[in-house]
C-alpha cells in the first residue's frame, strides 16, 4: 500500500536526454517539457547562469567570462557535474518547484554505451533527485513511441537520427536483433554546413545559423521546389559582416558527407540482418525517427540506396520520449516479466 501511495505522488518521468534537446514525459500527463540541452556557465565561478532555451540563445554570443556548453556529446554524458545540474533544473521545472517525493525516471540511452557511461547517466539522475532510474535503449524507445508492433515475430527497422548520433536497429520479438550506432547526426550536418561556408564563401557562421539553414533549405534528395536563402556571417579575411545568397542545391552538396555515412550504417545493418527478417523489411519498410529524420528528401534517399520503403514516424521528434513514457506507464508489469533488465 505504501509503495502504491508513494508512486502516486512521485510524478514519475520519462526522459529523452538528447545531445541537442531534452524532452520530458510525466506519467499521466504526457510530454510536458522540450528544451535544448544547453547550459550557460560563468567560467570564473562555475555558476550556472541559465539552462535550456535561454542558454541556447547565448551560443556564439557570450562575453569572455560566459560559456554556453552542451554537456552531452554523441548522446552520452561528457560533463557529469553540468549534466546533473541540467537534469535537476528540468525536474524542478516540470514539478513547478513543488516539494514532491523523488520520482522514478526512465531515461533513453544510445545502444552500445559502456557501463561507465551507463553509470554516469544513472548517477546524474539520482544526484538530481531521482528515486530510481531505469534505462531504455533509444532505438527500442523510438520503436515503442512510433507504435511499431515490436513483440511480433517479424523484422522492424528503426533509424533514429538525433543531434549527436544516429542509431539503427532491427527489432523482433521485443528485442534488438541487430543494432549499430555512429556519432554522425544533426550536429555533424550543422558542422558540415559551417565548413562549406568557410571553404566556398570565406564566411564564418555560427551553429545556430547553420541549423536554421538546414531546416529552411536543407535536403537529402532533389526537391521540386529548390530554394535560395540569404546568409549573414563574418568574412574570414576582412573580419567584417558579410551577406551571401546560397541555393538548396549547395546545402545538399554540403550535407552529402554526413548523409553518406548515415546511409552506409543503414546498409551495414541490413547486411547483418538475418534473411527471414530482411524479407519482412521489404514489406514493412524502414521507420525514420529523431529530429534529423525531418530533413527533406531523406526517405527518398534511403529508399533509392536500399530499395526498401522508407516512412517517417508520426512525430519523429517525440518518438523516443513517447516510447520512454509508454515504458514508464507499463513499468510495474515490465519489471515483473523482466526483473532487473533496466534497473540499477
Describe this structure in words.
The radius of gyration is 21 Å and the shape is flat. It has a 5-stranded mixed β-sheet with strand order 3-2-1-9-10, with helices on both faces. It has a 5-stranded mixed β-sheet with strand order 13-12-11-17-18, with helices on both faces. The chain has 2 domains: 2-140 and 319-337, 2-Layer Sandwich (Nucleotidyltransferase, domain 5), CATH 3.30.420.40; 151-313, ATPase, nucleotide binding domain (Nucleotidyltransferase, domain 5). The two termini are 23 Å apart. It contains 13 helices and 18 strands. α3 crosses α4 (115-127) and α5 (138-145) packs across α12 (319-329). It is of the alpha+beta class and 344 residues long. Residues 1-9 and 338-344 have low confidence and may be disordered. It has helices at residues 2-8, 53-56, 80-94, 115-127, 138-145, 186-201, 207-217, 248-254, 256-271, 275-284, 298-306, 319-329, 331-337, and strands spanning 13-17, 21-26, 30-36, 39-42, 48-51, 66-69, 72-73, 76-77, 104-109, 132-137, 156-161, 166-172, 175-182, 203-204, 228-235, 241-247, 286-289, 310-312. Helices cover 39% and strands 26% of the residues.
Which sequence of strands runs across the widest sheet? 3-2-1-9-10
- Termini, distance in Å? 23 Å
**How many whole angstroms does the radius of gyration measure?**
21 Å
Structural class: alpha+beta
Question: What is the CATH third-level topology name of the largest domain?
Answer: Nucleotidyltransferase, domain 5
Task: Supply the CATH architecture of the largest domain.
Answer: 2-Layer Sandwich
Strand content: 25-35%
